[in-house]
Amino acid sequence: MESIIEIGTNGFWKNRQSPKQSLERTALLFNEIKGETIIEIGTGIQGEMSGNSALVWAKNTAAEKIYCLDLEDKHISEVKEATQAYKNVEALKIDGLKFLKNFKGKIDLLYLDFWVQDKEGDISGTARAESYLKAFLLARKKLNSESMILIDDTDHIDPWKQTLIVPRARKDGFNVIHCGRQTLLKRNK
Questions:
Q1: For the chain, where are the E strands, in sequence order?
Q2: Under CATH, which number does the domain 20-187 receive?
Q3: Coiled-coil annotation: which residues (predicted)?
Q4: Quick one: CA dihedral 56, 59, 65, 67, positive or negative?
Q5: Are strands 175-178 and 89-93 parallel, antiparallel or unpaired?
Q6: Is the pLDDT of residue 7 over 90?
Q7: Using the 8-state DSSP alphabet, how is residue 118 labeled?
Q8: pLDDT for 143-181, tens place per residue?
Q9: Taking the CB of residue 54, how many other CB atoms lie within 10 A of it?
Q10: CA geometry: angle at 46 spanning 45 and 48, to 5°?
Q11: Which end of the chain offers a freer environment for a tag, N or C, measured as fewer CB atoms within 10 Å?
Q12: What is the DSSP letter of 7?
């Protein structure tokens, strides 16, 4: 059966699937590559349709460090409360792009799910497309030779989160593993 996602007049999905399967598959692949560090930009515990990725990473990976970043106090508080039993999770109220710029370690999984407001007059999604590419460029040399990038909400019309980052990451040796509700890119050694 074909999976069809209808788009409303506002350019957003009418009906869509949970990202749970994608998140769990990504966690499995993360463990297979013996990943150590996850950076999640845009975090929160927002229910089944959002996937609660911070909990998926905490419960299903052997990550040594999981950085959950957001600019909203509410989202940081949700993650801190939900993951208090997991000492490898650090929820920080910080701009993810600034964090990437200053991060000194290596990254095994970069998970992107943050929101950027478009400029007046731009086509809806332009700012997200540009910001996701910027996140990749900041993380590019910090991503391990075998690493992954997971992008949420890629079941949307272009321009959107995946529009610029996917072609650029592919030029840098990343392959698309799956796409739909989320897009997973993986680079092998």
A1: 37-41, 65-70, 89-93, 107-112, 143-152, 175-178, 182-187
A2: 3.40.50.150
A3: none
A4: positive
A5: unpaired
A6: no
A7: P
A8: 999 999 999 999 888 999 999 999 999 999 999 999 989
A9: 27
A10: 105
A11: N
A12: B
Extract the tokens encoding 106: 């290596």
CB 29 within 8 A of CB 52: no
Cβ distance 54 to 91 under 8 Å? yes
Residue 170 Rama label (left phi>0; alpha psi -120 to 50; beta): alpha
What are the sequence ranges of the domains in the chain?
20-187
114 in Cβ contact with 93 (< 8 Å)? no
Q: Is the peptide bond before 167 cis (omega within 30 degrees of 0)?
A: no
CA distance 185 to 175: 5
Quickly tell me which residue has 């991503």 as its tokens: 143
Residue keyed to tokens 């998970």: 111
Lookup: tokens for 71: 């600019």
Please name every residue paired with 13 in a beta bridge, in sequence order, or none if there are none: 7
Which of the four pLDDT bands, split at 50, 70 and 90, describes residue 46?
Answer: confident
Rounded CA gap, 7 and 183, in Å?
Answer: 18
Please say whether the beta carbons of 30 and 148 come within 8 A.
yes
Answer yes or no: is pLDDT of 1 > 50. Answer: no
Is residue 144 helix, strand or coil?
strand
